[in-house]
């Protein structure tokens, strides 16, 4: 996967502070899937998403085809690559979700920071 440019500071601020992000994956035929609305967090100079329902979620399964798609949040619309991440970054992503969405129920926060959800963590790379 090649990226054309990193996120700009303005894009990081706008996408990272947006309450929700619309995500569409690129299908095998090159067309975009329908959009789904999900939560999004910023950690440093990167943007992350994950599936609260884990790898069985339809929108997440769609990202497996080409690992490409389009996102929209905070007035920013961008073609992206989906990069699977694992390991230590998940703790920072968990913290970002707890901080940003902590006003939601404890059960909801537990689900988005669970090992199941964490197994779907992806970094969004601008294309």
From TrEMBL:
Pfam families: DUF2255. InterPro entries: UCP028498. This is DUF2255 family protein.
